[in-house]
Design brief:
CATH architecture: Alpha Horseshoe
Protein name: Tetratricopeptide repeat protein
Number of domains: 1
Pfam family, one: TPR_19
InterPro entries: TPR-like_helical_dom_sf
Order of helices and strands: EEHHHHEEH
Organism: Alteraurantiacibacter buctensis
Strand order of the largest sheet: 2-1-3-4
Shape: globular
Low-confidence stretches: 1-23
Amino acid sequence: MMTLLLFAAMAAGQVDNPAVVVSDAIEQRDVAYDTLAAGEAQAAVERLEALRAENPDDPALLINLGSAYAELQQLDRAEAMFRAAAASQVRYQLELADGSWVDSRRAAQTALRQLRDRAVALN
């Protein structure tokens, strides 16, 4: 599992510049973190797809959905989710599984690089 991509929380303020956070408030959202961490990728896909219907541009949902698809070896779908997260008009700071914070677009771009590296390693 790419633990870098498992998100538990996000800064509520959207970000125009990654160095400037509009709000210091922390908002927790369901992004199937526990399900992914437990290695239940199919259950995570089902949960995240249902959540995505309500929030189609949420980068945390898209990134975790991409991670779940990658675990299921559905690499084309994973790539599509990471690309959608990188292109999303919604942008904020995400907390990674290791406790660090990163801009959602940067996290999505990192996920794409990791996915490419994984695909190369499989070939």
